[in-house]
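Late entry, evening session. Most of the bench is empty. Finally got around to the prediction I had been postponing all week. Sequence below, unchanged from the version circulated by S.P.
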Amino acid sequence: MRKLLSLFLLSLILAQGCGVYSFSGASISPEVKTFSVQYFPNRAQLVQPTLSQAFTERLKERFVAQTSLRQADKEGDIQFEGYISDYKTAPVAIQGTETAALNRLTISIMVKFINTKDPKQNFETTFTRYADYDSRKSLSEVELSLIDEVNRQLVDDVFNKSVSNW
């Protein structure tokens, strides 16, 4: 029993030491120690005043919570910059009466990712996500909760592409 416990502890130490596995699904090189996230300005035609700050902060929070990386103000070992490229609402699920049963809020974000330790992993990609809401409600009634939902999805996409190698 003691040998089994020792073997388990040794494999746990080795897995931690190689820096390739984590419980969050991130596979970050051990050379990467810091990350930086620049403010994502809103360049969409329709500007929602809190969207830029909400997305930027949520992305930072995700890396703080799910990695052991330290946050740098700029020039981290891995770097994120970009902008909100689209923010729109449109009807979906048209009914027989030619009225929409649902509306859709869509947000697109262009992200430039730089990995200073492994430039082969760098990318520039636009991520798009959406959330539907009942057309009987105005956008202003549901906007903040929809932004929170869509931002969560966008941050998941950015996180996964940058450190989970999908």
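Two things to note before I forget:
The longest strand covers residues 78-94.
The chain is about 35% helix and 30% strand.
Will write this up properly tomorrow.
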